[in-house]
Amino acid sequence: MATPHELRHPLAMRADPAVSPPGPGGVAAPADAVLLGRLASAEQTLRDISHALAHDLRTSLRHVASYAQLLGEPSCAHQPEQVARLSLKVLDSSRRLQRLMEAVSDLARLQAEDLRPEWVDSAAVVRSVMQGLGAAGEGADVSCSVVSELPPAFADADLLRRVWAELLDNAVRHARTSADPRVEVGYEAVPGGNVYVVHDNGPGFEPDKAAVLFGLFQQGQKAPSPGQGVGLAMVRRIVECHGGRVWASGRPGQGASFGFSLPASPD
Questions:
Q1: Which domains does the chain have, with CATH numbers?
Q2: Is the N end or the C end of the chain the one with fewer CB atoms within 10 Å?
Q3: What is the pTM assigned to this prediction?
Q4: What would the mean pLDDT of 166-194 be, rounded to a whole number?
């Protein structure tokens, strides 16, 4: 069954990660294809981390150093309100930097060999995540529809929950900019696997931004409460460790769709 909005995209038509293009003599080499996919994923992760260390994390450190330097100026000695304000900025920046470093560390450590796959009820996970967002006051005002036939997935349960949590949190944050916030969860069956899709009716993004949204510290959509820019990179890494792929599509003013493919069975 197709997604609620009938998405058809080139990635879905070749989403089976276990099937490689025919090699010499027309024989496919699935093991080689999976290995190459994992190597490509690991290389991309290393590039993202290198970029993060060279740019984004360095910028955060500069902010902390600047605030600390201002605190050390003699003019602050007799301005307790200024000292308190700058101290809070140092604390907030330090905590943000700590969270970013922990997220980057998690991203770097994740390997396909660490997975503990099992059959996971995708619909139950989606409902649980949405309930959690509602209880936290973040998704209570957002209408969420889930296609009734959402298939189970053979994946690491904890990591798959993180994928859904990141995608649904992202969708809810952006849908809330709409007068009638809505999130739709669906899927598309493709040869050898399934493509799971989360669609929101938020502000959307320029189509040419889709290729970079799953990189570290990328912010493709405007929202009142932007994320840290780590979640989608983690989604990509988790999905690729499972042998799947990620994708995004959107247009300004027409919402956005984020999806991922997973093999339909452990075979």
A1: 1-267 (3.30.565.10)
A2: C
A3: 0.66
A4: 91
